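Hi P.,

Sorry for the delay on this. The queue was packed all week, but I finally got your sequence through. Input first:
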Amino acid sequence: MLNIKGEHIYLRALEPTDLDFLYKLENDTSVWEVSGTLKPYSKKVLQSYLDNAHRDIYDVKQLRLCIGDQNDPCIGLIDLFDFDPKNRRAGIGIVIAEPSYRNRGVGAEALSLLCDYAFSVLDMHQLYANILEDNLASIHLFKKLGFKEIGIKKEWIRTHKGFKNEIMFQKINTNES
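Then the structure:
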């Protein structure tokens, strides 16, 4: 089982007991704009996802981990997606589901841990993130962790209020030999 420990939080593999957390998070319409979700998920669909969550990143091209601490085993999720071992890159995304954990360093520690894992264990050359222009907290977080803005995708995401720009950030592994 994958378990990456930090100073205050840890990242761990998804477990069958995470079904209720996933159900609540995936059906929270306030995060649909950033996740691209268009309809609710059933517990059956999410259970099937959990049943296959153990599959290797090289097979499914994604790694989803729970962010936990000593008080709560799952306060958010952090993902590597579009895993491309040939070009040694992957996208990265994070959501802190519990508002009481936001702006307390949890996201920064989780992002730092996953970046270190991606660069040192998975031998990634670069990571990237796509962030809506009005998601100032995420923009601040990724910049704080050394991600550089590399471009803007104009009117990229359609919302109920119209189109929004998406900013692309990139972090190159500078510790490669």
